[in-house]
Automatic annotation (TrEMBL):
Composition bias type Basic and acidic residues, residue spans: 1-11, 41-59
Ranges for region Disordered: 1-67
Name this polypeptide is given: Selenoprotein H
Gene Ontology CC terms: Golgi apparatus
Organism: Rhynchospora tenuis
Amino acid sequence: MAPRRNAKEAEGLSPRRTRSGAVGNKREAAAPVARAKKKVRFEQAKGKEEDKDKAKESATGEAAPSSVTVTGDAKSIIIEACKQCNAFKTRALKVKEGLQSALPAISVSINPLKPRRGCFEIREEGGEIFISLLNMPRPFTPMKKLDMDELIQDIIKKLA
């Protein structure tokens, strides 16, 4: 038969000291300090970014833009392609290369923000939407049926 436990052992206070038990007490005491340091580092990094913006502001004499802005005749095209499947990526790259080769003054970016699921959309920044395929289930047949060369030519005609 197994020996009976004392009341002291039943509470979880074993008279035996092991290496893992001794280390556990030190970790609990050090944990709040480590978390406080991380917060300070984040605040310091945030402050550095603000200082850089202020430095740009003072150097140029005007406010630093928070995002990419379009000046003059240069147009910016945004391609939003889901990251769920490589089919989106290959088509987005093909459209990007086609537009940049036809119109060198144009700026094309793929997924500047987190893309939506099952989405393939080509749009002008702050303006016209050229194509929008949303919430496509697998196997993404509407996107795969598209003729990308024809799509690129249509977008070039609309932009020119």
